[in-house]
Amino acid sequence: MTRFSEWAWRETADLRRGILDLPFNRELAAGTLSQPRFQFYMIQDALYLEQYARALAIAAARAPDPGAIEFFARASQEALVVERALHGGFLERFGVDPADAARAEPSPTCYGYTNFLLATAQRGSYEELAAAVLPCFWIYWDVGKRIAGEAVADNPYQAWIDTYSDPAFGEAVEAVIGINDRAAAGAATVTRDAMLAAFKRSARYEWMFWDSAYRQEPWPVAI
């Protein structure tokens, strides 16, 4: 049987190439991404991580083995502590008022993505949840490595690039890939299909998240 991770990666090949070619990521590598676009992205990513941490914590609670419990619990904590510390430095560096950041609301894409993850955490199987949280790890690692190989010298976004191309982050990615492969190995065909659907949905949201940051996506109707 083909490993789930190989299957999911192959099924999303075109989408992942599209992610690498998004203007946000190409301009980030070139160091030409505008400050307002990056500010928007960082604020939305901080809002995303708060809810992603909840999904990871639920994955830890539902995990069937100690290794997966430990991984997801640690990942939930790191989503809040480590990455938000990085965001705090960026927000200060790029002149974002913490009060403005605190008042920010999630964009339509951020809101849709996080609610999909939390709905999967509450109503889907553990296997589906593991697959749904995987793209945020794996696609960021893929993008981080690609950008690291292309980034210009003295890139203003080097700290972001270093974070997502760090071998230590790659080790975490390999761990969550292994968790998914083990979950899928003993699952029925219908469950594996549901895992793939969840992986694809999150991968689509990853594309949408970077695209929405570049467009500084507003809600279509103000209240």
H/E series? HHHHHHHHHHH
Number of strands: 0
Nearest-integer average pLDDT: 93
Instruction: Please give the share of residues in helix.
Output: over 70%
Secondary-structure content class: mainly alpha
How many helix segments? Answer: 11
- Contiguous runs where pLDDT drops below 50 for at least 5 residues: none
CATH class descriptor: Mainly Alpha
Question: And the CATH topology?
Answer: Heme Oxygenase, Chain A
CA-based shape: globular
Would you kindly provide a brief summary of this structure?
With 223 residues, the chain is an all-alpha fold.
How do the strands and helices of this protein lay out in sequence?
Blueprint: H1 4-11, H2 13-20, H3 23-30, H4 35-62, H5 66-93, H6 98-103, H7 108-123, H8 126-150, H9 158-165, H10 167-185, H11 189-215
Give your account of this protein's structure.
The chain is mainly alpha-helical. The protein has a single domain (4-215), classed as Heme Oxygenase, Chain A (Up-down Bundle). It contains eleven helices and no strands. Helix 1 packs across helix 11 (189-215) and helix 4 packs antiparallel against helix 5. The chain is globular and about 50 Å long. The termini are far apart.
